[in-house]
Write a structure and sequence with these properties.
199 residues; mainly alpha
Amino acid sequence: MAANVIASIAHPYWANLGYAVREKRLDLKYSQAYTAGALGLSVRDLAALESGFVPSDVAEALSRVSLQSIDEILSWREGTARKYVTEAVQAAITPSSTPGRIGFDRSFYSTAAWTRLGKAIQTARAALNMTRPVLAYAVRSSGKTILRLEQGRIYGDPRTAPPGDYNSEKYMLKRLSLLEMALEWEHGQARQILEGGTR
């Protein structure tokens, strides 16, 4: 009997399965189009699965795909896809768990720290007469991301984060050096603010 993907699994707990699917697909040199077609999915559905960020309509499509068929198409041992889903579900119900190689890291910085940095960014940006889109371009992101950053809406623990990598602390920490250059800050200034210092 084919086991279905658990419909209640939600962002970001698709990550374990999605990353593993992508890794195996690339190893087999299968295209997204071929793999999606074999699973009865659209390329968009498969791309969302592989990214780990699954909107509700994609989750509905994925809930109709059997884990057994994923095993068969990717030449996995029976039960491999189920293992990744089980790990993700366990992570969802056990806050302290850290499943496999993917991991679900807690925040490095508190909401208050990100709010403090956001206010400093907004002040510095205004002083430079810089719009959000211009700053977004400088940090290779979007105006919406800069708005979230300035409002302190950055999430370190994926259990509390809404869908979208742009909300994540991990995503933003990688862009701090670009942010500092754009705002004419010294290297390390953003982390200093996050850690309680002032500019």
